[in-house]
Structures are given as structure tokens and as C-alpha cells.
Amino acid sequence: MEKWSLMTITVLLALTVRWTVSLGSYSGAGKPPMYGDYEAQRHWQEVTYNLPIRQWYFNTSDNNLLYWGLDYPPLTAYHSFVCAYIAKLINPDWIALHTSRGYESQPHKLFMRTTVFVADLLVYIPAVILYCFSLKETSTKKKASICALCILLYPGLILIDHGHFQYPLSLGFALWGVLYLSYDWDLLGSVAFCLALNYKQMELYHSLPFFCYLLGKCFKKGLKGKGLVLLTKIAGTVVVSFAVCWLPFCTDMEQIMQVLRRLFPIDRGLFEACMFSSPPPCCKLANIWCSLSVLIKIKNIVSPQTQLKLSFAVTFLSLLPTCIKLTVQPSLRGFKFALVSCALSFFLFSFQVHEKSILLVSVPVCLIINEIPFMATWFLLVSTFSMLPLLLKDGLLLAYAVTMLAFLSVCVASFSIFEKTSAEDLQLKPFSLSLKGYVSWFKSFPKIVRSLFLLSVILMGILSLMSAAVHPPQRLPDLFPVSVSVISCLHFLLFLVYFNVVILWDSKNSRSQKKIS
Fold this sequence. Notes:
By secondary structure, the protein is an all-alpha fold. The chain has 22 helices and no strands. Helix 15 packs antiparallel against helix 16. The protein is globular and about 70 Å long. This is Alpha-1,3-glucosyltransferase.
């Protein structure tokens, strides 16, 4: 009972923070003609309820795809339909075809916020709680509650879901997939990840670790015996899961192709300038292509097809070592670190990335916060900071400042992160030993890492204040957003190197993978 009472307090605190953030502004509030993501979600409810399924993804007189046309997989559309059905019962004006465009009212805001709250409560939060109880390192009730509190107070997800406006379902389904795999329920894990992928196509960021881990397990069991049976079962589960999700769109090939064209808009180019940018447009995304565009206008000198090939090649090469290691030595620990590394490679190097996509890296980082609390806390702070231009646009400065400080305080108090900066604490001992003659340098490593962390936090604090309170020079109107993006990108590149070093030099994988075989 005491175990659950502690966890109940944790959940209530997390829910209180979420609801408090949701009382503020949201994406595009009172800003016609496009408004923002809040209006996009409302519009999808309008479309899915009033139009037949065959028209959901097509441009028609009743469905202008230039005005927040559906560009997510079928499960998002089905979810919108369910929300629309409930909305219709409360107030039909909320989803009336055409006339509800840009609809804003306090009752409707309460309804929309509640739908996110319920999705969090039913899918994401239970997965976090059960995951924390499943960890060997958090076998005591207190440790499990502390771990859950830190994960549930991660400011990036709270601000985007309950401030900006977004549903946590794809990340929640992916987390259920990780949880099922941790219990060796591979078929349920496959179903959960298929649901995640069919809710948002960005879950492709996590697809290779899931694929390589399960394939590696099949290899270890032997592809002439149990391994082949498991592989067949997993393949069948994936096919059936996708078939069920896509069944209404399988009436003809044109339906399927149109949905795919909406999901993967190759013609948009390597990245898109943010809609709120002043002319000339300047990208405010913390990945390598946008950061390089400050110096080299890649989109102007390289064709869209070449951009696609370039981003694919760089992304593939950056995640290849991790995927090979995970396939050859499958372990749950390696799988979780691979989720981080591969998602970060996708975010930094892939095609058509959005600033919110950093959440696809952050949630896996949350899963290893108990193993590397110092580096995980640091990364999660930077990931939230990288979305600062978007958060300021939505009027979420106060919520940003309070949740960032609260999260940092809880992590410092819970994990004593400044005491866990040795090479061993950061999982770098195998790497340090491999350097041989340079091992002595690692004696001062904890002090160096702590100094870099403090410097990073101070820099983020100064840039946050300047972005909010200081007017940039007329010649450089995007100075602060671009600075935020470039500095965040440099952090992410260093984190990518760090996570790859941990994965490739990890001797624990070779021991734990024996249990699988």
C-alpha cells in the first residue's frame, strides 16, 4: 500500500503541473489565418467527423489540404474521429464543417485540454509508472517513485503536450513497447510499437532499435529452431497490426499512395523555415542542416532529390555502428541506449525534421535517467531549451522557466547528479581503459564535466533571458533563435558522440546478451 501511496503522490503532482500549464496559452491562439497546432487538431476532428474516410487525405472543396490537411497516419485520424464524436455531443458548433474554422472559446479550450489530459492519464503515465517499477535499480518503492517523478516532470513534453498542444499517444505506445520487451513479451511489444508508428510516422526514429533488438534475439535463439518461430510470429504480428490500422484505406492503391504522399512530403525539401520567421526566413531547428544553413544555403545549391539522398546517407552512416552492435549483442540495456542514439541521429541528420521531434530522443533518455542521471538531466534540459523559440511564440515563457527550474531541482535532489560524474558513473570506464596512456587524464574528468555542465546551464539561462527581454539588432532579427538552435545543435552532436561511445564500448551488453540466448 505504501508503495502505491508514494506513487499516487507522484502522479498527482505530475497531473497538477500538467493542468496548471494547460491553463495558459496554446499554439496559434487568436492568430488567424492558420492559427496553430491547436486549430490543426480541432480541424482534423472537423474533417474526420464530417467527411467519408476516402476523402480524409485528399484535396477537395470540403477538405483544403493547404489548411492543416491530415499528414499523420490512420491512427491519428481515428483518434480525431473519436474526439469529434464526443465534441459533437457537447457542442456541434465545435466541429461544424467550414463554419468552425478557427473556433475559439473557453468551453472548447477546456474540452481540448481535457482530451490531452485523458490521453496522458490513460496511455503515457501508466507506462512510465510500470516501467519504473520494472527496473532492477529501482526495486524499492522510494526509488521507483523518484524515477517516475523525474520522468513525469520532464518539462519538454509537458510544455509541448499541455502548453503548445499535442497528444502524447505515439510516445506512450512506444513506451509500452519498451515495457513489454523488458518482460520478453515480444509480440505485445511489436503490437505497441506498430500502434506508435501508425499514430505518428516520426516513430520511425525508433524503428531500427526495435527491429535490430528483436532480430538479434531471433539470431541468438537460432534461425533453424526457436529463433525462426519467434521471427515468424513477430513478422505475422506486425503485418496483422498494420493491416488492421490501414484496412479502411485498402480499397484501392490510390488511397494508400495518397496517404503515403501526405506522410512523406519529399517536395518540401530538407527542412522548412518556421512559419513565424521574418523575411528572409531563417531556420530555428537545432539539427545539423539548419545550423549549417546559417553559413551555407544548402536548399539553394542542392536539389530536393539530392538533399534527400544526402540526408539519408549521413543518417544511415551515423546510426549503422549502433544497429550492428545491437543486432550482434542484443540486450535490453543496449536497446534503450540505441533508442537514444538512433533517434538523435535521425533528429540531427534526417529529412524534414521539426523542432518538436527532439521529444523522440528525450523520452528514451528519460528511460535511462536512473543509469546516467547526470548526462540524462543535462540532455533533457538542453532538449527543452532547443524548443525555446517555439515556446516563446506560444507565450509559455513563465511555464518554461518554472518547469525547467523544478525539473533541475528534483533531479539534483533525487539523484545527487553532481556526485555522479566519474568515468564509471557516466558509463565511460571501458572507454577510458581502452585509451591506455591517456587514462590519467580521466582523473580530472569529473571536475571538467561539472564545469562544462554549469557553463552550459548558465549559457542557456542567459540566452533564455535575452530571447525574452532583449530586442535583437535590426540587421539580425533572428539572432537569438538562431543562437539557441546552433548552441543546442553543438550540444546534441557531443551527446551523440557520448552515447555512441557508451554503446560501442559497453562490456555489460556482451554479458547480458548471454541471458537472451
